[in-house]
């Protein structure tokens, strides 16, 4: 039988677990045409949640999804948004070509035959100016919604990328549009909480107060446990699952991945086997994480090693600083920068590498 766990693809409706409260909240905010900023650490399930909620929207609420992860300048952001909006409009090819060319001025449409033999119209965008493209996409979509009696929600995933783009103040331009739009709302989501909150929570920033926040953490332990047990056909002892959940900070992907390997190996659900699969999962990424680690500056590497060595606690104790040749002030500066870039988070008095998987690798290698 095929392995019932998937951890790389976004879950289908049947494979979606939990998140009832967050789903309902997001669903209602979308119906209310509110803008939303969705926070959550890597691999906890932001994108999965957005897709899940999109699937349950009424037909009169159109949804567009743009992943800004790879965007390097404002033009690429506008192009991603434009294509997402275009894809969201429901037309058959014939009417699409007729109506769409009236709505959008900056796009011409190419007819392409897909691998499966169906015919598709792909937009080819003219011009590279952010505001022109944005204006064209949004005003075209507004006219469409007005005419067809619908609304549109646009998800801009990995929105923190916008903070890295310096050729235009994308956030300021977007704000101006958001205030004028009648039928369109946005979901801004991303994993680098410090950067994303810098854009929305800081009073001096243009997007301050423009969106309602939703934060997601781990799926609730009992829900996730039952979900996994049903698929494994076995029960976990409470302590065994709790230990796994705690070790991977409740990160959805790592828990599903662990269960994938427990299932694949046909292993009993005990603590040693659970520990073994987690170690394998850390090992799998060894090469990638070595490269990632080497990309940090020398002082940052020291701070990361300290997090590994002391489990992120008591880093400022003299006896802990000494072996690393760091001063309190030096360490403090490095940690502030690592938190600012979203690589490290501080929970209570503990410093943790934000990406749980990378954190586990750091602990394994430097403790
Ligand atoms: N509610 C869920 N039900 C079932 N599987 C889920 C759920 N949420 C997340 N997953 C699993 O975890 C993986 C990671 O989730 P997802 O890509 O949605 O996280 P993310 O927070 O968007 O991560 P990133 O910050 O890397 O973009 C998914 O591929 C999916 O396999
Ligand atoms: Mg995502």
UniProtKB/TrEMBL annotation:
InterPro entries: AAA_16, P-loop_NTPase. SUPFAM superfamilies: P-loop containing nucleoside triphosphate hydrolases (SSF52540). It holds the Pfam family AAA_16. It comes from the Bacteria. Residues 16-166 form the Orc1-like AAA ATPase domain. This is AAA+ ATPase superfamily predicted ATPase. It comes from Reinekea marinisedimentorum.
